[in-house]
Amino acid sequence: MASLREEFDDIVDNRRVSTVFQPVVDLRTTRVIGYEALTRGPRGSSFEQPMKLFAHAYRVGRSAELDWVCRATAMQAALLAGMPPEVTLFVNAEPASIGVDCPDDLLDTVMLGARRLSVVVELTERNLTHDPAGVLHAAFVARANGIGIAIDDVGADPASLAMMPLVRPDVIKLDLSLIQNRPDLVVARTVNGVLAEVERTGATVLAEGIESPRHAAMALAMGATLGQGWRYGRPAPLPDGWSSSTGAGGLTISHDPPSSRTPFEVVTAKRATRPATRQLLASMSRHLEYRAADPAEPSVLVACFQHARRFGPALVRRYTSLAAASVMVATFGVGMPDEPAEGVRGTALRADDPLAQDWVVVVVGPHFGAALVARQPPSDERGEDTPYDYAVTYDRDLVIAAAQSLVRRIEA
């Protein structure tokens, strides 16, 4: 009798997974606009249920390969069924796998699927809070390849709302608990955060777990225009033919490339600078940093210190506390270690990197956002006392653009 490891290896090595598809509909017309691909292991095996399959994959270090197998299998089924490009294919993905090369035997299928199908990759809310840098990297890679981004299960962890503006998802999928349970303050905070993101970017809201007219009405009230759940269809093979009434329901996919500018360049292109001493900038920076630790609005804090030597013991203590209270804290500088303080993600810069000239503190929360950017003017006699040119902005779009120009540099 084969061991669990042998049974699992056989499934992955021989690509023995299958896919069923659950329809995604326009909530007002119930017209099918897409399908979510759901993986199943071999029937009757120890790994028929996807949770068991992926849990074992994590234990044995094959989760990225399994993830590619599942996506390729879903794309192959959609291609064989003749899924038209007007229909959106939602596929689940682990952030780590997107940064790993696709296995050679799956590459043709994946490339053909990316060309012929309208694909949206779903990244879970759990990944947003447990592996924020991985999610951001995965989103940048997917978007660079013309693939849409969805954040799945939104509502299970309110802290994920701070990451959402940085990912800029095309689709926000509300967790079924929001739709099926009695509304409370946690639900209200999530819905308000989602609606703020929708207003800013035009993202589409999709509600999961709709099983009744009451659930559908609640989804509409929360801003959803799309829905899925047993009310509209259970997971099953794709249809044999495609009706003319099946197709896109106004789903907008963003393909904006990330900016290569530094936060200073992003902000000062729209805001005038003024001179300031290092002492004033340090005080203003602390004020913004404390906003990142506000328990009422968990936030993301990203900062550039020019050089790691500026990240002294006092900053190490402060940033350790900030990391414990924030969704993500990341720092940049020449010689910056991978973890300059407990819970803080560090990124080292080259000495000739334009960012190495900048003093930056950016805070992004579900509703609050602020950026301080500063740079010493070129001078042969520049020293510690040389004033900086600086700007502060609370313009949300500018703040998020400044933050994105930093977080895209973080390696997953």
Could you characterize what this model shows?
The protein is 38% helix and 22% strand. The protein has helices at residues 4-13, 50-60, 63-80, 95-98, 104-116, 125-130, 132-144, 164-167, 176-180, 185-201, 213-221, 263-268, 278-292, 313-325, 396-407; strands at 18-26, 32-40, 88-92, 118-124, 148-154, 171-174, 204-207, 226-227, 274-276, 300-307, 328-334, 345-349, 358-364, 369-375, 388-393. Helix 2 (50-60) crosses helix 3 (63-80) and helix 3 (63-80) packs across helix 5. It is α/β, with parallel strands linked by helices and 412 residues long. The model has no long low-confidence stretch (mean pLDDT 90). Helix 8 (164-167) links the parallel strand 5 and strand 6. It has an eight-stranded mixed beta barrel with strand order 1-2-3-4-5-6-7-8, surrounded by four helices. A seven-stranded mixed sheet has the order 9-15-14-13-10-11-12, with helices on both faces.
Radius of gyration: 23 Å
**Overall SS class:** alpha/beta
What proportion strand?
15-25%
Q: Quick one: CATH superfamily of the largest domain?
A: EAL domain
